[in-house]
Amino acid sequence: MTTWPDNPVLVEVWRGGLGTEVLESVHRGALVVLDAGGSPLATVGDVTRPVLPRSSNKPVQATALLAAGWQPRDDRELAIGAASHNGEDGHVELVRTLLDGAGLTPGDLGCPPALPGCEATRAQWLAVGRQPERVAMNCSGKHSAMLAASLAAGWPTAGYLDRDHPLQQLIEATLGEAAGEPVAAVVTDGCGAPQHALPLTGLARSVLSLVQAGPGTPGRRVADAMRAHPWLVAGTGRDDTDLMQGVDGLLVKGGADGVHVAALPGVGAVALKLDDGGDRGRLPALTAGLRRLGVPAETLAPWAATPLFGGEDVVGQVRVAASVLAG
């Protein structure tokens, strides 16, 4: 296994355009690559320190909803239940359908109102004076599924976001079991739901368990639904959608504040956290981890570097540190 010193540089930002190239800044963090058996192949930084995976926990959270008795009518509803969607028309319509099928309404949702994350859809809403709605919030699929699971289990929907609610207790236990270690802390996430801290190794192990679960199990059902409907998981122009469409068999889920996790059945998993919580370095770091798992560089080329623009020209790029690729 390869390791690097603490607080290493994962991603470098280079800028040029006038006949020279300069190192503008760096992104530090941690990254772990696991083999198919869940053992570390490579670690960068401290991968045992608990972090908040944010929406990267959603795939495993969705397995707890199935265990509670939720029966989505199709795998599209299951995919939106694990999504961080754009709020495009198809996303919002599916959330409404999920709620209606369970005898619920958007007013039952505990997530805050929001405008769509998709720029084009948001512009359409603003043009007609449409106000923020709970169904457009990127976590509304998860909240709708949580409510439906509570009803299926015979638990109250009131207080479904409280940590001591039976559903949240089941989610917390499920996350710890999949990670192979207890949840280290519980806080409140941006959508109002409990958020559970785990080490990166545990996060990678938990998502790997989904893609390697047997057919028909809750874990495999979630993994298959997300991979079958990647647009529902994120949306137009989103990296998670594009990656799952571009890499056969890949399950990938990003989270806020610089977190990403991905897994390939029979191959392994990658999880990372950028300490500054930034987004622009996540994809170069993730692709470096996937290359460690044998995914061809040419397959990952669209995500291996993020271009920097000066005017209308590309004048630099965000790319993984050379030491991470060479180690």
Question: In percent terms, what proportion of residues is strand?
Answer: 15-25%
Report the oligomer: single chain
Spans of 5+ residues with little confidence (pLDDT < 50)? none
Q: Can you summarize the main beta sheet?
A: 9 strands, mixed
Describe this structure in words.
The structure is a single chain. By secondary structure, the protein is of the alpha+beta class. The protein is 37% helix and 23% strand. It contains 13 helices and 12 strands. It has helices at residues 58-67, 75-81, 89-101, 119-127, 140-153, 166-179, 200-211, 218-228, 230-233, 239-246, 282-292, 297-300, 322-326, and strands spanning 2-3, 9-16, 21-35, 40-44, 50-51, 185-188, 194-199, 251-255, 259-264, 268-274, 305-310, 313-320. Strands 1, 2, 3, 4, 8, 9, 10, 11 and 12 form a 9-stranded mixed beta sheet that branches. A 3-stranded antiparallel beta sheet has the order 5-7-6. The chain is globular.
Strand and helix map with partners:
Elements: E1 2-3, E2 9-16, E3 21-35, E4 40-44, E5 50-51, H1 58-67, H2 75-81, H3 89-101, H4 119-127, H5 140-153, H6 166-179, E6 185-188, E7 194-199, H7 200-211, H8 218-228, H9 230-233, H10 239-246, E8 251-255, E9 259-264, E10 268-274, H11 282-292, H12 297-300, E11 305-310, E12 313-320, H13 322-326
Parallel strand pairs: 1-4
Antiparallel strand pairs: 2-3, 2-12, 3-4, 3-10, 5-7, 6-7, 8-9, 9-10, 11-12
Helix pairs in contact: 1-5, 1-6, 1-8, 2-5, 2-8, 3-5, 6-7
